Amino acid sequence: MTDRPTAVPAGTRLLHVGMHKTATTVVQNAARAHRDDLWRHGAWYPGRGKDHIDETRALWQDTVSAEIEVANEERWQEFAAELRRNTDRRTLVSAEHLAGMSESSRRRLVAAAGGEPHVVITARPLAAMLPSIWQQFVKERRTVGFESWLEKVFSADRDRGMAKVFWQRHDLGALAEGWARVTAPDRVTIIMLDKRRPELLNDAFEGLLGLPGGTLATEGLDPYRSNRGLSVEEVELLRRVNRQLDGAANSGGHYFRLVRNGLVGGMQLRRRPGLDEGVLAVPGRFMEPAQDAARRAIAAVRESGVRIIGDVDTYADPVRPATVESFEPRDVAADVAVEAVAGIVASSTRSGVGFERAAQRADAPRFEGEADAPAAARDADPVRGGSATVRLGSGAGAIATAADAVAAASDATEVTLRLPHLADDVFAAWERALARGEDRSFDEWLAWAASSEAWGSPGALVDPAVVADAVEGLREAQPQARIVLSVEPASALCLRPPAAAVLRQVSALAAHRGIQVDEYEELLAGAIATVKAGPSGRSDRTEPASADVTVAHQEARRRALARLPRDLVGIDAMTEWPDQAPSRPVDVPTDRIRTSAAANLCVGTILASRDAYEASEHNPDDDGTLGAAPPGAGRNRAPASAAPVARALRGLVDRWRRR
């Protein structure tokens, strides 16, 4: 074993091939941060990014499509040409995906590097890596649970599925033998990380590259950029989100932007998980198989004759077994959900990971939304004869003015005006208020929302006169139309208080960072719609609200009822409409939230962002160019469109029904 190694000869290409989860991100961030320092000392870190994963994708990525394969090959050829420059410098190439490549791909990389390249493999104890590696699988859109994954990894068949992927990347003995075959044993170095010697990693790379000690030091690297591990609660939330996302939102571009950089990045950057959230560790029953596999790998490493920095025997070290009762907790800390949803909002509004670039957005282009027609009228197909149903109310997707009701009915020969129960209309208005950043308590908000001064404002109740005005407008526009009044029964369901509390905190974070209400309203409206579609987001635990706050609204209902023609179908059922009473959610603790509800909040925000993003690509700006700004960044945007959310929810509801 050696400590600081001697430098490789000038002009050598140093190929750092992983493994995954062995501080590769630390090495890459250090090399990126100190590119100029490397150059001054005769070394070179090609490119401009953090690593060389994209540049080498043609070597390690499975075929996705002919078009992508061609693009990957072009990118690789460009990078290979770049490697032929600066042949007098020690050059570092780093991409953890290179470890598990096929032998033919390894030979392509070695040939492109030219001369006598030197391969570096970083490693740490196998049992300690397993939780981190599984998390990486989950970050790659997989949904398998931790113990199920371990069962597959340590199954007898290593040549199929997840086990094959795992051992291609993390069998240290096979990696040492494979890379030694395509180079030479003395041109392969294994660096064994050691928690007792944190300086070993930088010392080894500085030595190999001929750099002065301390060159690669990185002070204050944040948890997102150092890719800190997730707690049991955080990773379970991510796994649930993966399971619920549909194919379009789960595609590469949306997923990386909204989930990897948004949801995961927000949690990593802005949270410090406590021990009570559960530390992911290998269950005791898997410790012996892990150590046996590690011992076999150690023997193969020694047999291969490659160089070793550190103590390779630690690859078989045991770790403290897991003590958590479940790797799939039913609920999570509320701030896990807050930072996850806030991270998606931040990414959607081009505010950086965890809103870190919010102050730099002043000149960013913004998505222009459709602000003229209300959501329900805008998304409905024009009615040509036949019947139409118009829901008058305060929530997202409802119609709040007589003019919009007439427009939505068009020239239908029968129009049904549906009137929500006051309790449900109050809850719908409350939900819209939450999506718009409401920070008052429910009771304080209701006192405002039910006052005549607030009627018609976003997040307040609608003026009851709208009902009479709509009837008069319809009779004037379509004198022959049959108008039916339909009073909906009370559902007695409200948004669960923990979900409401999460939304309030998310909007407060966004507002604090200077994000405007019209940028995040539709995103949080999507979150509300999705969480309400699942049983974990709705509650029947309500109680009567103070009757005093809705006296003015009830009086206005009586006046509206007195204006309605007595020949309307359904008028007789309206007698109790003015006397309906509001309800309020029962106060419950809000420091924890069901994991399923937290996942639904995330999924709803992601789907709303995706829909808005895709809409922006089909709506030209005033200058005729496609809107370049991200979803959620809309000036003067009307309430969240009901149709896109409904389309997204149908698939979710169908899946819940099949369970």
Task: Provide an overview of this structure.
It is a single chain. The chain is α/β, with parallel strands linked by helices. 46% of the residues lie in helices and 9% in strands. It contains 24 helices and 17 strands. Strands 2-3-1-4-5-6 form a six-stranded parallel sheet, with helices on both faces. A three-stranded parallel sheet has the order 9-10-11, covered by helices on one side. Strands 7-16 form a two-stranded antiparallel ribbon. Strand 9 (387-391), helix 16 and strand 10 form a beta-alpha-beta unit. Helix 9 (172-182) packs parallel to helix 13 (287-304), helix 16 (402-409) packs across helix 19 (465-477) and helix 20 (497-512) runs antiparallel to helix 21 (517-533). It is elongated and about 95 Å long. The chain starts with 12 loop residues before the first strand and ends with a helix. The model is unreliable at 362-383 and 620-659 (pLDDT under 50).
A few lines on this structure:
The chain has 659 residues and is an alpha/beta fold. The chain is built from 24 helices and 17 strands.
Key descriptive features of the protein:
659 residues; alpha/beta; six-stranded parallel sheet; three-stranded parallel sheet; 17 strands; 46% helix; elongated; disordered C terminus
Strand content: 5-15%
Q: Shape from CA axes? A: elongated
Radius of gyration: 30 Å
In round numbers, the mean pLDDT is 84
Q: Can you summarize the main beta sheet?
A: 6 strands, parallel
Widest β-sheet, arrangement of strands: 2-3-1-4-5-6
N-to-C span: 56 Å
Low-confidence stretches: 362-383, 620-659
Give the tally of β-strands: 17
The number of helices is 24
Structural class: alpha/beta
Share in helix: 40-55%
